[in-house]
Amino acid sequence: MGRGRGKVEVRRIENSVSRQVTFSKRRRGLAKKARELAVLCDADVALLIFSDKGRMHHFAAHGSMEQILDRYERYLLCEDRDVTEDYPEESQENMSYDHIKLRSKLEALQKSQRNLMGEQLESLTFREVQQLEHQIDSALRNIRSRKDHILLNSIEELRNKEAVLMEQNSILEKEKAALGESLHTTNTAASSTTAVAAALPNLNICPDDSDEPGS
Description:
Layout: H1 16-41, E1 46-50, E2 56-60, H2 65-80, H3 83-86, H4 97-116, H5 126-199
């Protein structure tokens, strides 16, 4: 009686060339299986694959990828929570598809915002935590760049104000000097007039005694 085949450990292929060859073969095989499943079972099948280089490969049966993803989002919203729990006046049947889609996107944005604030991180995978870290690092770089831009603009504005004040101060100094020179000229002229008046003889004209009456 032969021994059964041992369990093969699946782990990352370290050699980049071998990894790329294996990726191409397995990707084509997976797409073939997805296509067969869609044809044989009349199923809506969507396949999304991102390589380690970030290149996307996709396959969608019986419709576009967008239609299948929209259906997936709607299904998640209806399955994960009871839409009548917070909105008892609205039932799942009479809510429009666009309404459900918008609400789903709103909840996704709110969850993303809470994650960016460091909240509700327990459900995130390692890759999602890495992506969140990259987003925060990128946001911090943008914030620092904006802060530096604002500081440089403030410094430039202060320098311009300083130049204007220095120019105004220079004009005031010139006006002050011109006023002082004018006052000096006026005082000099007044002093000269006083000196001339003092140098003139003091003429006292007295009446002649012969002119007195009864002489």
